[in-house]
Design brief:
about 325 residues; alpha+beta; five-stranded mixed β-sheet; about 20% strand; disordered N terminus
Length: about 325
Amino acid sequence: MLSRTPAAPARKSRGRVEIPRDVDEADVIADGRLVHLTNLKKLFWPEDSITKRDLLQYYADISAFLLPHLRDRAMVMKRYPDGAAGKFFFQKHAPESKPDWVPVCTISHPSANLVDFPVVQDLAGLLWVVNLGCIDLNPWYARCDDADKPDYMHFDLDPTPGGTFEHVMETALIARDALDELKIQSYPKTTGSRGIHIYIPIVRGPDQRQVWEFARSFAKDREAAHPKVITTEYRVANRPEKHILVDYNQNAWGRTLASVYSVRPKPRAPVSMPLHWEEVEKGITMEDFRIDNAPARIHREGDLYRPLLLQRGRVRLEKLL
């Protein structure tokens, strides 16, 4: 058996798990569990001098806000072993190396029969999955007790070639106003990439197909009302330029989106940040929310996506089907 230098332990300062700097491995105690972290000095964003350790520290620092949005949901792992600019791969099955204390969510999946997805329930599980190279986090739309009954609906607004982020914000406000007319409260967040996500908390009941059908109808209506701005064309080659795709197909069964507070594999490590609608009205940029400044904002503003977790204020979508 090969021997190695013992990994440096993590320190806890005023309730904060502090992952050591200047070491390549560390043993972290989180929630009373030991998590072994590796390749901490690896540059995940070389041009920005952001390491894997920095990514782990970010998630540790905002975990109290993030974890409620991940608990009890299957996690589709999107792994970037060589950092943000490297190749990635999707992994559905929990790896054999998974600790016993990371639970799984077993879902019947067309591509692989039964799949045991890992479930991130606590900080230890969060650090474990990020240590596997997951830069952004992609939870299932429904909780594990009924994987076909989502508790939110969403729209992914993405510019086609020539479209600008200003057009994205304009489209987001069009969608908000139309949802307001239906008495549906909506919650925006940056995607951390090029667009905006709009989430709507719904009462569990309609299955994923029914949610998709409502989202499709809503998006098609917006396209008909604003044909110079909005498209719903699924085929990339047929999408008109200088438009914003209102992507309802992301509501299809088995799809996932980067969760709220996820870091994205883009320059400067932007974060998928929940917004006030007033911020969308005034205008923001994707670069406003990054791994280096996001924790301060999150702790200052609190969880703007908390309504997605509450029982009150949810839409009874079946009444609109």
